[in-house]
Design goal:
InterPro entries: AceGlu_kinase-like_sf, ACT-like_dom_sf, ACT_Aspartokinase, ACT_dom, Asp/Glu/Uridylate_kinase, Asp_kin_monofn, Asp_kinase, AsparK_Bifunc_asparK/hSer_DH. The chain is α/β, with parallel strands linked by helices. It has helices at residues 24-35, 51-59, 65-85, 90-112, 117-124, 126-141, 168-178, 210-221, 254-262, 273-279, 333-343, 377-386, 411-418, 445-458; strands at 12-16, 40-45, 146-148, 187-191, 194-196, 202-204, 225-230, 251-253, 282-287, 295-299, 308-323, 348-353, 357-362, 388-402, 426-429, 435-441. The structure holds adenosine-5'-diphosphate and aspartyl phosphate. Aspartyl phosphate binds next to loops.
């Protein structure tokens, strides 16, 4: 990242993801980045890599005590590696032990009452509490005034455990009142992913939610820049783990980045862009292991606006199709359908309609399973009273992202040539200038994406 672009009075919120704080060496590299940039006053960390997954496994209720203790042991080993490298300072060691004891207590309780939402959130939140505690100590040992502060002091949410909604006004008031004043004196290290409701109960924002937390804090504090430090040197034209010809994109518009995140570019949580757009904060994505490689800047406007920018994919998609002859020439059917979905807190993602059926995918942001769990028996029963319902799982959503997609001749032909031998289950095109997307069977998606990327983005 070019540190010279920041004036001394500007404010950057920097977020470091799980791999960036995976162990002591990784955390130490993050400290280099922070110390090189005086504008970074708020540091948001995720749990060390692997810890949230282990906590999720515990939250499902591990009844066999040996197995439960083994999972706790794996978490403790990750945290103690860092604590040991820090020389086991007594106060930090004592606080870490308290957090690990809480993990033990909550996981023991969930072994008998699996999935209890408030307790699950209390358990999941402990990963970020451990990493922020250790990272603040590391910064202090590097000679930098820094304090771990509990994000629940400011990150007010509703009480919807597992997928809480931030309360923006309260968050802004609390962040301005409690954090803004002291920012020049010491850097704040805080937790992504977690928040608290008005009664002080711990909540979480959904899997991968630390980017979102950092964007919300940047907005609440009026930051100039939000830096997302991760394990890739920017946002690529496709997931580099899947497509070897994918290339980093130096500059993206907010619109393009939002589409990419929504349609599966895991490097950015889908909700990250909106707070940045609202507050006019520029977003940088770079690699904490190799900051010298630069990264992607996301801004309101970009110099280049190519038709084809990227291909994204989302696995594990669920398609809900509702059929009813009552829909024929009727008024209000869709309104009723959406009212039911809204009552069950389901946000519709893609939608296509015919005279007698509606097919839709679910917004599965923050879900590990593509939103399958959102289709509760109560919802299906209510829908079943007004129409015939079909649920298909195991699909994958592919999105071609760029500019003027809906108004450029030949886009459909180039995309669908690749799909000649595949069954396309649903197509959405036309509503957005920035994407064309379709569903295919999950087992076919890798070659489809590789070939599409090759044709649209690798051929000159
Ligand atoms: N278009 C893309 N550009 C870059 N990375 C992508 C893209 N799509 C998916 N990814 C994946 O996102 C990963 C980084 O996201 P994530 O693992 O959530 O990071 P962190 O733990 O830092 O939050 C990368 O390792 C990469 O495999
Ligand atoms: N630790 C949380 C939140 C998060 O955003 O993590 P990461 O930044 O490593 O994706 C999770 O794994 O869901």
């Amino acid at each position: 990242m070019n540190t010279h672009t920041f004036s001394p009075v500007s404010l950057t919120v920097a977020k470091f993801g799980g791999t960036s704080v995976a162990d002591y060496a990784a955390m130490d590299r993050c400290a280099d980045i922070i110390l090189a940039d005086p504008s970074v006053r708020v540091v948001v960390v995720s749990a060390s890599s692997g810890v949230t997954n282990l906590l999720v496994a515990l939250s499902a209720g591990v009844a066999e005590n040996d197995k439960r203790l083994a999972l706790l042991g794996q978490i403790a080993a990750i945290q103690y590696q860092i604590l040991d490298a820090l020389g086991r300072p007594a106060e930090v060691a004592a606080t870490l032990d308290q957090l690990l004891t809480e993990m033990d207590k909550h996981s023991a309780s969930l072994a008998h009452l699996p999935g209890e939402p408030a307790r699950v959130d209390a358990l999941l939140a402990l990963g970020e509490q451990c990493s922020s505690l250790l990272f603040a100590e590391l910064l202090r040992q590097r000679g930098e005034p820094a304090r771990a502060r509990d994000v629940r002091e400011v990150m007010r949410t509703d009480s919807h455990h597992g997928r809480a909604t931030p309360q923006l006004q309260e968050l802004a008031q609390l962040a301005q009142g409690r954090w803004a004043v002291g920012l020049n004196a010491e850097r704040i290290v805080t937790q992504g992913f977690i928040g608290a409701d008005a009664d002080g109960n711990t909540t979480t924002l959904g899997r991968g939610g630390s980017d979102f937390s950092a964007a919300l804090l940047a907005e609440a504090l009026g930051a100039d820049n939000l830096a997302i430090w991760t394990d890739v040197d920017g946002i690529y034209s496709c997931d580099p783990r899947l497509v070897s010809g994918a290339r980093p994109i130096p500059e993206l518009s907010f619109d393009e980045a939002a589409e990419m995140a929504t349609f599966g570019a895991k490097v950015l949580h889908p909700a990250t862009i909106l707070p940045a757009v609202r507050s006019g904060c520029a977003v940088f994505v770079g690699c904490s292991r190799s900051p010298e490689l630069g990264g992607t800047w996301i801004r309101n406007q970009t110099e280049l606006n190519p038709v084809y920018r990227a291909v994204s994919l989302r696995r594990n998609q669920t398609l809900l199709t509702v059929h009813s002859l009552n829909m024929l020439h009727a008024q209000g059917f869709l309104a009723e359908l959406f009212a039911i979905l809204a009552r069950h807190r389901i946000s519709v993602d893609l939608i296509t309609t015919s005279e007698v059926s509606v097919a839709l995918t679910l917004d599965s942001t923050g879900s590990d399973s593509g939103g399958r769990e959102l289709l509760t028996p109560a919802l299906l029963e209510e829908l079943g009273q007004m129409c015939r319902v079909e649920v298909e799982t195991g699909l994958a959503l592919v999105a071609v992202i760029g500019n003027r997609i809906a108004t450029t001749a030949g886009v459909g032909k180039r995309v669908f040539e690749v799909l000649e031998n595949h069954n396309v289950r649903m197509i959405c095109q036309g509503a957005s200038a920035h994407n064309l997307c379709f569903l295919v069977d999950g087992s076919e998606v890798d070659p489809v994406v590789q070939e599409l990327h090759g044709r649209l983005l690798e051929q000159v």
